[in-house]
User: Fold this.
Amino acid sequence: MLGTVLVATDGSERATRALRRALELVGQIGGDLHVVTAYEPPSMRRLESMRTAMPEEIRWRLSADSEAQATLQEASTLARQAGVDIETFASEGDPAKVVLKVADDISASLIVVGSKGIERRILGSVPATVAQHAECDVLIVHTA
Assistant:
């Protein structure tokens, strides 16, 4: 059994590939799967322009974390299709810091991230930062 597995997603195709790999692992070996996404709240200008472009009856639904919640809903749908139960987290902040904090909070035994942008010469890459600072194993899924 894998224990507690945390997979990070931003809703991109590459992150979805990492999520699918985590679903496969948990489905085959067992474990508890948690999915996290991070978000930065939109500026007031962007938020207002987004609201203006939406039909009046749904403007109230728009919030700083609405995209994050939609991302987690997609992850939940994929998990249901794979027959895997998940717990989801959305948190405001830097993605790498959010992943590391949630991993610590849930005592993750494995973090799964996609390889998007992982190159040693690029500082600040989320997968590189997570791999460097995690207190558990990290699986970087090749997603290029």
